[in-house]
Specification:
Layout: H1 16-41, H2 51-56, H3 63-78, H4 82-97, H5 103-134, H6 137-146, H7 148-151, H8 164-177, H9 183-194, H10 202-216, H11 231-249
Helix pairs in contact: 3-8, 4-5, 4-11, 5-9, 5-10, 5-11, 6-9
């Protein structure tokens, strides 16, 4: 006979068999309540069988919602004169640059003007590219064939039967979501799709780095040093932006 071993005992309370279903029922009610709240937040019904799939695919409002949003955004973008808009923005920057402000406010003004110029240039590059690509079936096809993100995108059978407007909206949506200050993506896209190789963009790379400090730390770097923005540097940035705009305008 083995010694040193105690018989195993199992304690089982009669109420456990009752409380577990009750706890599960409460948990189920709480989960369903949260699920209904989630559905309502996106304007959907808890009985909609497609909601979870749409949520996973990143279109919780429903595919029609995003399609209409993209089409509207695409049409608004098409109505803009991107060159004229940029020139107006740069003209306003120049006006503000030579406005008399208290000496203690001068640095803050320069920080804001630097960030504004860079953002305006980004918007211009994006707007022109989207307009040209989405206005041409040949360029749209070229973008899809040469862009790694779009060429690897999984398509449903319905995607092959999209109308021209729907395809343009799909491409515009992708380009809209693209971070256009990522010049590592922008430069090759202009080259491969529009066959344009920018003459010189070193100044814009540098300006974007400075812009990061301007936007996220109000003009100070990680070591708490002021970034080098002056009236002269803003003037030079304006000049470079105008030259780039003229270069792209003539594509």
């Amino acid at each position: 006979m083995l010694t040193g071993l105690r018989p195993t005992t199992f304690a089982f309370a009669p109420w456990q068999s009752v409380i577990r279903p009750i706890e599960f029922g409460r948990l189920f009610e709480e989960v369903m309540s949260d699920y209904q709240d989630l559905c309502e937040m996106y304007g959907r019904s808890a009985s909609d069988p497609d909601f979870i799939d749409d949520l996973i695919d990143g279109v919780p409002h429903g595919r029609d919602y995003y399609y209409e949003e993209d089409v509207n955004w695409f049409r608004e973008n098409e109505e803009k004169n991107h060159y004229k808009l940029l020139m107006e923005q740069l003209k306003n920057v120049h006006t503000l640059l030579y406005t008399n402000v208290p000496i203690e406010a001068e640095f803050s003004l320069l920080v804001m003007l630097h960030a504004h110029i860079v953002s305006a240039v980004e918007g211009y590059l994006a707007g022109v590219f989207i307009h040209k690509v989405c206005s041409s079936e040949e360029l749209t096809r070229k973008l899809i064939e040469t862009n790694p993100d779009l060429s690897k995108r999984k398509l449903t059978l319905g995607d092959f039967y999209q109308t021209k407007d729907a395809l343009e909206a799909t491409v515009a949506s992708y380009l809209k979501d693209l971070i256009f200050h990522d010049l590592h993506k922008i430069k090759p896209m202009y080259k491969s799709v529009l066959n344009h190789d920018f003459s010189e963009l070193t100044w814009l790379f540098k300006a974007i780095l400075v812009r990061h400090h301007c936007v996220h730390r109000a003009g100070y770097d990680k070591e708490n040093n002021k970034v080098n923005v002056t009236t002269t540097s803003i003037d030079e940035l304006l000049s470079s932006a105008i030259n780039l705009a003229d270069e792209v305008k003539n594509l």
